Automatic annotation (TrEMBL):
Alphabetical UniProt keywords: Cell membrane, Membrane, Transmembrane, Transmembrane helix
Organism the protein comes from: Microcosmobacter mediterraneus
Pfam families, per the entry: FtsX, MacB_PCD
InterPro entries, per database record: ABC3_permease_C, MacB_PCD, Macrolide_Exporter_MacB
Protein name: ABC transporter permease
Amino acid sequence: MLVYLRVFKESFSFALNALKNNKLRTFLSLLGVTIGIFSIIAVLAAVDSLDRNIKDNLAGLDKNTVYLTKYSFGPTDVPRWQRDNFPQVEYDDFKFVNRSIPEIQASAYVIFSGLETIKYEAETIAGVEVVPISNEIYEIEDFKVEQGRFYTEGESESGAPVIVIGYSIAENLFDNLNPIGKQVRVYGRKLTVIGVLKKFGATIFDSPDEKAYVPANFVRRFRNGGISGLPGAIIIKPEKGVDMAAFEQVLKQKYRNYRGLKADEPDNFFVNKLSSMTDVIDGIISFMNTIGWIISGFSLLVGGFGIANIMFVSVKERTNLIGIQKSLGAKNRFILFQFLFEAVVLAVVGGLVGLGLVWITALLVSQLTGDFEFILSAWNMFIGFALSTLIGLISGVIPAISASKLDPVEAIRTGM
């Protein structure tokens, strides 16, 4: 055992000396592996970071949450022209679902109205996502009111001119003033601020901090509905432990009956489940990972060929030295380990430099974006280290074997 350890130690020492004595060649070899490892780990880290940020943003929502609307949130076989002719999901539909579908914990009616401008005296904020939605959303979404309150069921039903604003909206519009009770102008109408949401924080989706919420029935007074009007949706949160397949079947069948659809007629609505959205996201993430591996694989291949080429050159340059070592009693395995270690050290150092560059990039991206946390996990670092070691072994094994099999006499004569 001690003999093998000595062989390892001496081979490793020879390899380091060879790398130190050929700095330019070492640098060029490192460059290929560094770029390869940087490419693949950067892609894996970026995809993992994107996946984690999306999952964190969706963590506050129940994956069984259902969106009943005329639009599909994922791929569908229904032609575009047919979907465009689907009737809108109206407020009356929401009332029907509430009273007719069992096992609903909470449901809310939302209108997709787009971006609006909010004004308070001389202050104006443009491009704000104002969400017309019924009061039940407070039981579904993962946000809390910090100042004031959310609008009540009575205010929601009557369409009262009230508004609940996000933390950032309140901060930018009112600065140090207390927003509660102040009147702002939205949709060209005056609304009273009755609540400010607690700070939610940055997300890759639109944060509640930058949104405002008004009763859906308030907007229904002056915005057109119907097939060409503003689209609506019913957000449904089923009771915990419910059989989702059975729940969805009951929902579809009762809603079909409500719309007067015959047995042979297709659905003219979509039941979108949040869990299906996460499955689509997982599929996209998986596809991005695969593409990343393929693209980065070419970089690793180039780096591996670079190391193999340098190792063959190294063997040729040191043929005379190999002959002398073998004539003095060096075993084949000593020569094999010497060149194999040289290739592995090259690849590992290149890989570590690549990982260092990814780490620096992760810090810079996280600092510059603020909203997106770039994560370099220990698993990805292990993958980078393992890949660089494997590249060194594969790239160096053939040159190392050819060096170990050289005849000492021929090697000395060739090198002279």
